[in-house]
Write a structure and sequence with these properties.
heterodimer, A: 262 residues, alpha+beta, Uridine Diphospho-n-acetylenolpyruvylglucosamine Reductase, domain 3, Enolase-like, domain 1, 3 domains, five-stranded antiparallel sheet, 14 strands, globular, B: 161 residues, DNA polymerase, domain 1, five-stranded mixed sheet, 5 helices, 5 strands
Chain lengths: 262, 161
């Protein structure tokens, strides 16, 4: 790993200031970034730790739904969101392993936007709002492709606001070695319709299965999507699964999520 | 180089680190606490698990500077004050919960954190709770048995396999 300067501000304002330096990079839980740095896939000149910023941690109910601080570890979301938004808590509690969940954060996960990460499905499937140090970004505008988001250089995800659905569930087909989603589907039913977000399958990252959303908005039952199929073109092809395999998983997991949501 | 201070196994310690110095490196090379093992160095295997402010974490994937001021516990801090093995460590010994022993420090630290949250787990919960720790001797069965015994449950009916 190349060496770097390490700074640990205690406020969002100081972090934003530190991130203006040439070659500066934000560090949240580091569960992806540290590994990338060891492989020299990332070599920041300055690392700005966000783990000491108290105002970016925690889970609470507020305007628009459940507010989760950007630097809140997955383990805390799993515990503290359980009575407000159980599907989101379950998603957080299924990421990686216990040690990863004690460090990895919501903001770090969605800023990285790994195409097989769980949180992008929860954020997009909830129609959440990503709050940064300078603006609010709708989930539909936030995720823009593989490891690509609407964030500008030096912009920090300070929190995410999740509207709380009437019913929801996340179904993940584990890739057992990495514990990322080989494919995962988040289904959430709101008064104005159903959202279905798919991770681990899309060649351009997380996406909404709009055909299923329409069918489920009319009839929220697994049978509503029985006649639908997912076009495999553009889905991920790797040694773990073909596009056709993933296309089938999307449908199977969507049906399971609808059943689990009840 | 910057100076970091933290509390490790109840003692105030400090040392000079680079930005890139990992917590595992600081513990092993800086403090000589070589009980924390580095297996994969990619946060897969869990041999390097320690507790930071009471939470189990993989010390190969945290920078020492990021935990300045924290309270850290390593395998060297797990025995009873008189030097005898803790209940959990004794359970590993009683049940032959280790073969080569390389994964054992991480297994003990992960198990201790797990039992703190779930004092009377089922076997399935133990296996799920130790998902982040790999035993390359594949000695999982007796590790799980040891954790169950440490939780005060009767493991006499669980056969060694």
């Amino acid at each position: 790993m190349h060496n770097f300067d390490f700074v640990k501000p205690s406020t969002i304002a100081d972090a934003v200031k530190a991130l203006k330096a040439e070659g500066a990079q934000a560090l949240s839980g580091g569960q992806t970034l540290v590994a990338s740095m060891k492989q020299r896939l990332a070599a920041p000149a300055t690392l700005v730790s966000l783990t000491g910023i108290a105002e970016m941690k925690g889970v609470c109910l507020g305007d628009g739904g459940l507010h989760v601080g950007g630097a809140t570890p997955h383990a805390d979301v799993a515990r503290e969101a359980a009575r407000h938004y159980p599907a989101l808590a379950a998603l957080a509690g299924g990421i990686g392993d216990p040690q990863v969940r004690n460090r990895g954060t919501l903001g770090g996960s969605i800023a990285n936007d790994d195409p097989a990460a769980c949180y992008p499905a929860g954020v997009l499937g909830s129609g959440a709002t990503v709050v940064t140090d300078r603006r609010r970004i709708a989930a539909d505008d936030f995720f823009q492709g593989l490891f690509t988001t609407a964030l500008h250089a030096g912009e920090i995800v300070t929190s995410v606001v999740f509207p709380i659905p009437q019913a929801a569930a996340y179904e993940k087909f584990d890739q057992p070695a990495s514990r990322f989603a080989l494919t995962g589907v988040f289904v959430a039913k709101y008064a104005d319709g159903v959202r279905v977000a798919v991770t681990g399958a899309g060649g351009d990252g997380v996406f909404r299965w709009t055909e299923a959303e329409r069918a489920l908005s009319a009839n929220f039952s697994a049978s509503a999507i029985a006649g639908l199929s997912v076009d495999p073109s553009g889905l991920i092809h790797d040694l773990h699964g073909t596009p056709e395999y993933r296309a089938n998983l999307v449908k199977v997991l969507t049906a399971r999520a609808v059943q689990a949501a009840g | 180089m910057t100076k970091v201070s933290m509390t490790v196994n109840g003692k105030a310690v400090s040392g000079e680190v680079e930005g890139r110095t990992l917590l595992s490196t600081f513990l092993r090379d800086g403090l000589g606490l070589t009980g924390t093992h580095v297996g994969c160095d990619t946060s897969q295997c869990g041999a390097c698990v320690v507790h930071v402010d009471g939470r189990a974490v993989k010390s190969c994937t945290i920078f020492a500077a990021d935990v300045a001021g924290a309270t850290v516990k390593t395998i060297e801090g797990m025995a009873n004050p008189d030097g005898s093995l803790s209940t959990l460590q004794q359970a590993f010994q009683d049940n032959h919960g280790l073969q080569c022993g390389f994964c054992t420090p991480g297994m003990v630290m992960a198990s201790a954190a797990f039992l703190a949250e779930n004092p009377t787990p089922t076997e399935a919960e133990v296996r799920h709770g130790l998902e982040g720790n790999i035993c390359r001797c594949t000695g999982y069965h007796n590790i799980v048995k040891a954790v169950l015994q440490a939780s005060g449950q009767d493991v006499s009916k669980i056969a060694a396999e």
